[in-house]
Amino acid sequence: MPGLSERHSFPGRLIIVEGIDGSGKTTQASLLRNWLASLGVPVFWTEWNSSTLVKATTKRAKKDSALTPTTFSLLHATDFADRLSFKIIPPLKAGMIVIADRYAYTAFARDTARGVHPEWVRSLYSFAIKPDVAFYFKVPIQVSLKRLLGARMKLKFYEAGMDMGLSKDPAESFELFQSKVLDEYDRMSEEYGFHVIDAVQPIQVQQRQVRAVVQRELGESLASYLVHTANGVRSETVPT
Amino acid sequence: MAARRYIGTGLPYRDLTDIDGHLIVVEGSDGVGRTTQLALLRTWLEVQGFGVIETGWTRSQLVHDTIDLAKAGNSMNLLTFNLLYATDFADRLENEIMPALRSGFIVLADRYIYTAFARAIVRGASREWIRKLYGFAIEADLVLYLRVDVDTLIHRVLLADSLDYWEAGMDHNPGFDPYDSFKVYQSRLLREYDNMAEELGFTVIDARRSVEEIQQDLHASISAALGITAEQPVEVPGA
User: Fold this and answer.
1) Is the Cβ–Cβ distance between B100 and B54 less than 8 Å?
2) Do B62 and A1 touch (CB under 8 A)?
3) What pLDDT digit, counting tens, does each position of B219-233 carry?
4) Which of the following CATH numbers is that of domain A13-139+195-226: 3.40.50.300, 3.40.640.10, 3.40.50.720, 3.30.70.360?
5) Which of A35, A46, A227, B14 is the most buried (most CB within 10 A)?
6) Coil, strand or helix: which one is A68?
7) The whole model's pTM is what?
8) So what's the ipTM on this one?
């Protein structure tokens, strides 16, 4: 198992986005996907907790609030393992670009915040492969909370960390739980070399930075596609 | 009894100090007679006055449907196979085993993490990974390993029923004859159990003998571990 520290040897490239709920990472990943597709790049998309193998179980268990921090962690790892085998590695072998909305780091951040052993959850995911580009959309809790409440008015039970008994008020619980998650992401930024994007910036500004990073990091893989485009993003400053 | 411990990294959010009961594990191959022995053990322990709760492998509310479904369609790969079993075990550990131990019961476990280790390693998983994965498990008071050789085993299994796809390990021996596959697979499992028995200090019980003889051995081992003596003076409350 090459694990998260070594580079994979597949011809494709793996781009992942991370951030707390309401950070806007899915919006940014979709815009990136559309841009790559418009260049003619074959792109494959996969998101957290979407495998058919465990989806029904996870959904039912979440509805019944029947999960402990450990079973929560293990079910998500099962989902991830299933997607890695069937959705991530095959397109990488075929030379495609895979965009993953959330990756193993989500588990490291959330599950550690829920109280599982940080060493255990890292070892659990040691079968994962290292992404070629990892984005972390960093946003203060208050901003993400405002975005979530504005969009759908109701915070989900586990998203708000209500299983931890931090507070009976969903918004307060969200704040307490997600600030722990945020701390974990910040700790990991350096450990795993995330490209940190200030997710308070306007959407299009963030997207220009995202594209610039991708162009710089995957330049070789994208070279043949970029030749054909007139609107380059060369002038953009690349955040590190 | 020594203080209860986790196998590895443990569950940092769960304290073990209030656990009073005993965890007794019976391990051994498919068809070795575990179910028969466990039923007798339960009765015997209850006659002694102990509260007994039994737990099996893959019986949790949470994922047993998923495991059955995945097995039926053979759609599990090695990773998801191991992870689903670990999920199932974690659910039973936290929701059945630990609460029962906390209430002072004897938990009789029909198989434990060692079955998961053996099955995973035989299928090619990393030894280190699978052991760390189950690092949240608690150590048993006693692991009773019912041991038979593979030839005795295959006779028993054939007499009881036909060979099962999974027990014959056909998922990782495609194209094999079921009999050959069973033999290869169960021999590898036995080797893993034997290695663990030595490394981790299981109590090895020769399971080629009669049901009664095996049961007597089990009683002796459990009595020693739990400190059960033949005659215990009883003080009548309020007398």
Assistant:
1) no
2) no
3) 999 999 998 876 666
4) 3.40.50.300
5) A46
6) coil
7) 0.86
8) 0.83
